Amino acid sequence: MSPLDLVFQYWPAIGAGILGALVPRGEASTKQRAGLGFIAALTTLFVIWLWPTEGAAQAAQAPNEWPHLLNLLIALPIVGAAAVLFIPRQMLSTLRGFTYVVLGIGFVASLWLLTVPMTAGWHFQYIKDWMPSLGIRYHVAIDGISLWLVLLTTFVTPIAAYASFGSIKTRIKEFCFALLLLQGGMIGAFLALDLFLFYVFWELMLVPMFLMIGIWGGADRVKAAIKFFLYTMAGSVLMLAAIIYLVWTHQKLTGDFSFDYLALSRVVLPKSAQLICFWAFSLAFFIKVPMWPVHTWLPDAHVQAPTGGSVILAAVMLKLGTYAYMRFSMGLFPGPASNLSANLAGVAILGGILYGALVAWKQRDVKRLVAYSSVAHLGFVMLGLFSATPSGMQGAVLQMVNHGVSTGALFLLVGVIYDRRHTREVDEFGGLAKVMPLYAVVFLIVTFASVGVPGTNGFVGEFLVIMGTFLSERLGKFAGIHTVGAAAGVILAAVYMLYVVQKMFFGPLTNPKNKHLSDLTVRESLALAPLVLMIFVIGFFPSIFLDRMKESVLLQHNQFKVVSGQAILFADDRDAKLLPEDTFSPVFLKGMPKKEKTEEPAPGADTQAALGGEGKVAQ
Amino acid sequence: MNAGLFLGLSPLLVVSFGGLLLMVAEAFSKRRVDETSDDRDAGPSSELSLGTAVTLLAGAVFAAAIWFVGPEKLEGASLVAPWVIVDRFTLFFSFLLCLGGALAALLAGGYLPEHRLDRGEFYPLIIFSTVGAMILAAAGDLLSLFLGLETMSLGVYAMVGFRRASLRSTEAAVKYFLLGSFAAALLLYGGALLYGATGHTDLAGIREAIANAQPGKGPNFAIVITAAVLIIVGLAFKVSAVPFHMWTPDAYEGAPTPTTTYMAVAVKCAAFATMLRVLIGAFGEGGLESWAAGWPPVVALLAVLTMTVANLVAGQQESVKRMLAYSSIAHAGYVLVGVVATMRAGGDAQGSVMFYLLTYTVSTVGAFGALILMGSRGAEAVSYEDLAGVGKRHPAAGFAFSLFLLSLAGVPPTAGFFGKLYIVKASIGAGLYPLAVILLLNSVISAYYYLRVMVYMYMREPAPGAPIAKPMRSGYVATALVVAGVLVLVLGLWPTTSLQIAVEAALATR
Questions:
Q1: What is the 3-state secondary structure (H, E, C) of B354-380?
Q2: Are the beta carbons of B411 and A203 separated by less than 8 Å?
Q3: CB A260 within 8 A of CB B443
Q4: Which of A395, B189, B218, B316 sits in a 20 to 30 Å window from B484, CA-based?
């Protein structure tokens, strides 16, 4: 066992020791600190030793896959957030430095994920029992889909932090705390494969975001913060009910409680229950995306949030909705997801892409405009998912990353001008290119990315999605119309974005207040540079990204296709059933909770057990 | 004399004996000489508060000890059955009630001297009320049940009116006293009817008579059902279920805050213990437990009304204390959902109710305790405005309050979340899908008013010129908050063991 592993086995004890040493305020002697730290560490060690070890951690033993990497990614920010509470609030530079260090280590550690070839199935899997009597496990794993979203998170959050520390001057300590906790929650939600764990992380994100909007936001921040919280929570409690229903059904069928995504994806609910549960899950995700007509929290939240909050909200949190729809709604309820896809695609196009674009066009507040453009862009992502073709889904995942990069950059840019003029009204500006040339150039580049000009990232994603839509069987005879609608959306995007660019940067410099604006500062340029670079990297070399996600997306797609083709999904039956294990690929089921009992309701249990066993040996 | 009997009753005996000792101690303790003196340690409160907490915790420790020994091994303990039943259910509630009482006593140790209510009789009252509550939870007979109820209530009436100089406090006490007596009378009347119909006052006997009913010979079902309704109404008053909740906001608001805390946790938990005992113990058979012809739809209606009305009204309040009063009504509604689920999901559902009461106790004590902590001499923090900016000026107090509010709202990973989760799980397991969904939607409404407190603490600044609430400095309150806070987190992160204990306790009554 390497020293690193030892550190990871006993990290709670080490952490408790450090925290204990930090607890005494003011002038405590070294002896006192050491003593307290020692006592805290010993107590925690005691708990670790007493921890039930039955069915203990199963970690992937594949080469190069260090089993604790994902734990590090999740725990580091959360532990960091707790540690921030112990740093005195006057030590501003320490607070900032500490936040950078934690986020930086997270980013570097997440790059390790790229060293492993992302073959289909789960990687860096780590499983540990949490509440065995309820079948709740700490089960995290990554695949080619969540890989990019985790990287997006670890990439964007430090940038958002760096940019925020330029403009946020009050209550830095709380800001660091909220930011780190948010980071931990988001990464956890992307990695969790246990529905319970997922729900915990999903809710954990709400509180820091609520504080971020409510404390550092604009004039009407409190209302926006509460609206954000209640909207999201209303969706997620219904999801909780559906999760519990699913778990009960699974328990009735197999006799075991399990919240595991892999185990639950075998459950086939009665037809009407399938539909209700699908909506309960999807509503939670659609609110987060947000899809029309549950998008109304988004403009308020974005406009009121501070720049850093907007960047994180747009770049990462919205992706949780699309990611979770792809993973959980499509994975657990393929029947309704497949049946309803044509209708939902219609909603995505009309309500998302077209309506979002038209409303964005009408906005006079640049930030609000960008917020509505998010509605339109995420319409594309959802369209790619509804089309359920390999290229559509790949495009959707890529477009999630693209939107994170380009909209993140747009919010930063809006923040730049707001810091200078304290207004975001388009009419206030004009001819800015003369006084802020660099700013204008960057804005134009990001606009191109957002519009989807070839050579930028937006083009690749939108192209894949539109192609996938056209080829989709699931959209049936509407595929053509859907494609036309989506293409029209691209044109509208160009209309409203270029309109803003033209109004703000060109024409005469009439407003005297704009005559002496300074160009981008060093801090602002440094924050924007990585995002602008990524725009071109994805635009010119999309295969770097597509190759790594391909196998996972294909697996997801094939599984969706196979499972949604099962006749028992649509049988008008009042009993829940269990799909045989061989419906699924063994790499998908790797890490499924082991059966305590040997009963297998489906015939041919032996071969399946052998198959399942093989998967487990392969770990 | 029987050692098993003594051991079995030891939690009760320890607490009662401790209460008697404290009464004597109080009589001999030194009085505050000068009412206007600023010396907080001059009064008798500090030592008495600690003594009360220690006494009640000793009761809890004894209950836990008997749990580990196994109450079924104490042979003599069955001598007092069915008047006082010593089983795991009783022990669980004894522990819970003692814990709630001890924490409330610690809060009183900070609150009473701070607000010049420093009179020692508060502590014997809290102890003897807890004795009543423990008897109530242990009662297997309608007579001892009534005895426990009255012992508990009389103490609480006096504690509500403890601020003698205040009109509101007196009004609250009178209101609570009148309605409480009315409820007790209804309960007693129901018991009398049951005795008339079945010839039994013990719950097991009543159950047997109902189960073995024969046409023409057995108990008259019209009378039994009337009695059941009367008893349910009487208990609904005590747990403050809508529409029998009218006294609650006034009494909770008018009472000194430690009393409010005590009422919200101990009194409510004891009433729910009785409700479980009576509904399952006496009306658990003979069709009365079925959805078609029994109490479940009635209780379900109460639950829906309680949750919805309380949450909607709580959002309108301008006083945090009153808001917490309504929130405690809403929580009673959630628990009632679990009570309904016991009809089908059995021990699991009852265990989830009991676990919920545990999580509710620690979160509520914490929330009221944090509110107490926010105020100091002469200026109690009551309204939202009083809390403006507290999160910035006093981060630790603000953080603690936020933690308890999030737990009450049911945000993971706090105790309150698991409490709700298990109730929802039980009700879905019992097939009560609409109830589960209504509960969850209600928890969203409740998030609004809990968040509002956080909004004021972190996102508002006090209006210029407004009096700024200064948090008090009290080791007792801080201790209570730390204990409650640790429990909120521990129950949130590792709920399994305590849930298993609750389920085991629940199975004892079946």
A1: HHHHHHHHHHHHHHHHHHHHHCECCEC
A2: yes
A3: no
A4: B316
Q: What is the CA radius of gyration of chain A?
A: 25
B443, B459, B460 ranked by CB distance to A237: nearest:
B443
Question: pTM for this structure?
Answer: 0.83
Report the range out of A49-53, A299-303, B298-302 with the highest average pLDDT. Answer: B298-302
Cα A176 from Cα A86, distance rounded (Å): 12
Q: Which residues contact A192 (CB under 8 A, 6 or more apart)?
A: A139, A140, A198, A200, A201
Residue of chain B whose alpha carbon sits nearest to that of A217: B459
What pLDDT score was predicted for residue A524?
83
Is residue B259 within 8 Å of B156, Cβ to Cβ? yes
CB atoms within 10 A of CB B303: 28
Peptide bond into A290 cis (omega under 30): yes
The b-or-e profile of A307-322 (16+ CB within 10 A means b, else e) is bbbbbbbbbbbbbbbb
A58 sits in the region (left: phi over 0; alpha: psi -120 to 50; else beta) called beta
Using CA atoms, how far apart are residues A375 and A354, in angstroms rounded to an integer?
10
* The one-letter amino acid at A348: A
The DSSP letter of residue A595 is P
Tell which of A233, A239, A257 to mutate to test the B interface (max B CBs under 10 Å).
A233
Q: Check CB contact of B76 with chain A, cutoff 8 Å.
A: no
Best mutation target, B405, B437, B461, B503, to test chain A (most A CBs within 10 A): B437
Beta-bridged to residue A260, according to DSSP, are: A194
What span, in angstroms and rounded, lies between the C-alpha atoms of A331 and A557?
10
The Cα–Cα gap between B318 and B453 comes to 10
Read off the pLDDT of residues A233-289 as tens digits, 9 standing for 90 and up.
888 888 988 998 888 888 888 888 888 888 888 888 888 888 889 999 999 999 988
Cα(B505)–Cα(B350) distance, rounded to whole angstroms?
A: 9
- Among chain A residues, CA nearest to B396: A85
Cα-based distances in Å from A419 to A219, A414, A428, B24: 15, 9, 14, 69
Beta bridge partners of A142: A123
Contact B440 A214 (CB under 8 A): no
Which chain B residue has the Cα nearest residue A135? B496
Radius of gyration of chain B (CA): 22
- What separation in angstroms does the CA of A353 have from each of A300, A357, A483, B482? 19, 6, 12, 51
B267: helix, strand or coil: helix
Alpha carbons A353 and B22: distance in angstroms, whole number? 73
Partners of residue A131 on adjacent β-strands: A136
Cα nearest neighbour of A280 on chain B:
B437
CB B277, CB B344: distance < 8 Å: no
**Contact present, A534 and A151 (Cβ < 8 Å):** no
Indicate yes or no: CB of A237 within 8 angstroms of CB of B441: yes
Q: Do B437 and A238 touch (CB under 8 A)?
A: yes
- Can you tell me the distance from the alpha carbon of A38 to that of A438, in angstroms, rounded to the nearest whole number? 54
Inter-chain CB pairs, A–B, below 8 Å? 80
Residues of B (221-260) whose Cβ lies below 8 Å from A: none
> Contact B184/B153 with Cβ under 8 angstroms?
yes
Strand ranges of the sheet holding A58-59, from the earlier edge strand across to the other edge: A58-59, A123-131, A136-142
Torsional sign, CA B471, B473, B477, B480: positive
pLDDT digits (tens, 9 = 90+) for B59-77: 999 999 988 888 888 777 7
